[in-house]
Amino acid sequence: MNATETELQELLTFFKTAKLPQVPFKLNKYITVVNDVQRFIDSEARAIRDYRGSEIVHDSLLKHLRELKGIVQVDLEAK
């Protein structure tokens, strides 16, 4: 398993037990998640798994899931 696959698996494991935010919410200044959050996670994971190429692009694809994890962690700390 390479570093991208390992990080993706860790993120997916985190999201299995995390309390996901209510939609809509801003993921970053460019993306607002307006539909099912789990569907967003699944879509991003599929894109990461399906992409065959540069690790730089994989890192960019993982960025959205990292941002979502950061939002979930901030929500947990606020409670």
TrEMBL record:
It comes from the Bacteria. It holds the Pfam family DUF6965. Residues 7-72 form the DUF6965 domain. InterPro entries: DUF6965 (IPR054238). This is DUF6965 domain-containing protein.
